[in-house]
Amino acid sequence: MSEKNRRFLTSLFQKIASQGWGDNFMSALHEDLEFNAMGTSPVSGTYQGKEAYRSQLIKRLDDKLESWPVPIIDTMIVDGNLACLQFHATGGKGKNGADFNMSYCWVLHLENQQITKIWGYYDAFKMNELFNI
């Protein structure tokens, strides 16, 4: 199971890097996704369901971003249905000029080649700058 999930995530992030987040990422998410944006920022909190994640978090970011960051995986640990991805992103820029290049750490739970849970850790300072806080 671990190797299958490793291949799935590697392929997913390669697609995102070459084609953008959009449908590539959304198609990998389970309908009952639970996305936990950790820390303290304008987007922190728990988003229940794929549609809530899209409308309450992704749309807010899309409204603020001139260009979405391109992810580059630095480290991936996969153990069964759990994975930990440490990645950095380049090319992210806010409409307000904010630098949105940062490092991330996501812990993911996968089932049947879909992401069911994400605990996302990121640079809250850069997120606050994007939202002018």
From TrEMBL:
InterPro entries, per the entry: NTF2-like_dom_sf, SnoaL-like
Superkingdom of origin organism: Bacteria
Occurrences of domain SnoaL-like (ranges): 23-117
PANTHER family in the record: BLR2505 PROTEIN
Protein name per its UniProtKB record: SnoaL-like domain-containing protein
Protein source organism: Sodalis ligni
